[in-house]
# Entry
Amino acid sequence: MEPTNPAEIAQRVAELKLEHRDLDAEIARMIDDAPADELTIKRLKKRKLQLKDCIARLESRLIPDQPA
# Structure
């Protein structure tokens, strides 16, 4: 269930950005390792993209609707 309160949305966005940053560091570390597990790296990259989409969706909810 996604938050509806702007403060809750902002908190959730911050949490997701932290997870996204952590995944980025983990992916970089795995790529630097010689025997990298390609399947795991692909899964982490997919999760990272899902987080990015979720962050964008939540951030768009924080922007008030503009009359046309």
